[in-house]
Amino acid sequence: MTVTKKDLLHAFKIMVTARAMSDLFEEKREITSKYVHATSRGHEAAQIALGMHVLPKDYLSLYYRDDSVLLTIGMSPFELMLQLLAKKDDPFSGGRTYYSHPSLNDPDKPKIPHQSSATGMQAIPITGAAMGLRFKEVTGLLNEEELGAIAVCSIGDAAMTEGEVSEALQMAVLKKLPILYFVQDNGWDISANAIEIRAQNAYEYAAGFKGLERMTVDGSRFDVVYSATKKAIEIVRSERRPVLLHVDVPLLGHHTSGVRKEFYRDDLEQHQLRDPLPYLKKLLREAGVSDQQLEEIQGIARKIVDDSFDKALKAEEPDPLDLSKHYFAPTPITEERGERAPVGRDKVVMVDSALFAIRELMAKHPEALLYGQDVGRRLGGVFREAATLAEHFGDERVFNTPIQEAFIIGSTVGMSAVGLKPIVEVQFADYIWPGLNQLFTELSRSYFLSNGKWPVSAVIRVPIGAYGSGGPYHSSSVESVLTNIRGIKVVYPSTGADLKGLLKAAFYDPNPVVVLEHKGLYWSKVKGTEEAKTIEPDANYIIPIGKARIVRSAESVRGESTCLIVTYGMGVYWALEASKGMESRVEILDLRSLVPLDFETVASRVQVHNKCLVVTEEPVNNSFAQALAGRISEECFQYLDAPVRVVGSVDTPAIPLNSKLEAFVLPNGEKVKNVLEKLLGF
Known about the structure:
By secondary structure, this protein is an alpha/beta fold.
């Protein structure tokens, strides 16, 4: 395929601009190395070829060396330098993240959701975007401007060894997704070379994924990589199926500004022989462009780069006061609405309240979909929490995934980016750990590090807690880990009505919300949990996230000691059991939401009762509950008549299988009562 003279000149202007930037960054390294950065030096031909073939309707995921792609899609050297120097007007993050870590949502450029520095992690979110595009196509939600849109994952070959990349490729071929995996292979992974770190390159590895078309090409020759990229994108765009393009490129620059090539490399001369710039000049001369013209273009590029750097140096620094912006995207749900207990309705178990909430949301919102392990038509969830939903809404909207917790969670980034509302399930809290990488690295930071451009709207349902001798792999409580991930919300309802109202709020919230649902409360089969069954609220019922509920109030009486129990989940029922016979002296506060926390209500009720007991299912040490008790002690000290106490599980690495051992480890009403009586008598 012949490349036109016009395209060659366009590519040359960008390449010499990128080269001038990398030259300047090296010359000024005493300034530019303040913040770690990498450049595309050696990769320019491949990256420019990619940038020339993507469209504004496409979704693009880049990695930290892709500044030539950014120049090609229309970013200026000045804009990139604002990020290099972490300036206030950095167009991607406002000075919050590294160079060539783009977040872009401009109408005239490809959409670039936020991604982290963690290599390989971008494969799942951008595959989620491709899955979202396919979903919109098959369900008729795609608007005319989006027709033919694709997703592109740019990634280094060394990152292809990450396990999460395998999850992405598996789903891409399983679902026949419109995505290009653009793999740049320079043979190095920081100081480890290909011989040390891989059994095969990405092209060879991709042979194991049936249905993934694969291509390999010399990325140092612009005409060759241009034609290959054009062909690959045409396949994805027209045939709506995945392609992997492996691009062999030289690494002419440093790994990053902090890891210099002369420290460890002995192949610099060999890589220099494949410099894409002299080859592109040769093509231009053959097309009739004179050396004088080429020198003039280079001179103009260098002047633009120099002027841009001088201007960027003088640009304003970020204001620390702005750091409070973009923690959480504003939610429209700020007050309780609807009818919590409509007259004439029967009580339903908690799991059905959840089922009805999801059914109502999906009936009202065609952009809503549900996926996870075993939630599809055959089973409808191992707890029957999704029963009949696939029959109601079809297998495109309710479907099973492989056992891929990372993909289940991380794909919501891309799904949300394309305008969908994903509701996903992790089957047990014990198995959320493979998904924490995505939850922490991609979901939780997207809104903050994209400077408000890319909030991730996702509902992540997680059955949690010990019930019925589930043993060490089906009984864990994980809320203390989750509440330490800044940028996500965590709710933990204890009744069916609260679960329904909070699921609705989570759906309309533009932030990631983890909904913890205690398995032992689903059917109220555990003695003492009958109040988890509630009258089903109406379809309009919704509870704002971050508002606690007084389960049972008690008023302070002169001469009589009273106590506030602060708890959530199963703890509500242990508190009710423990306070039998002492109802007038014990107030029970159900947090419902752990992040954000309704500390205002906690503090106001502590002031009334002057004593406080926090009850949790987790072991106490280093827990969310212990941290809450510490905060109460600090901020309410002047109102307290006794130390704040915490009751939790016996401190063991796991919940044992044997039912007697399980009962010994877990809190119960009697254990809570023993501490409560001591507090009341203090």
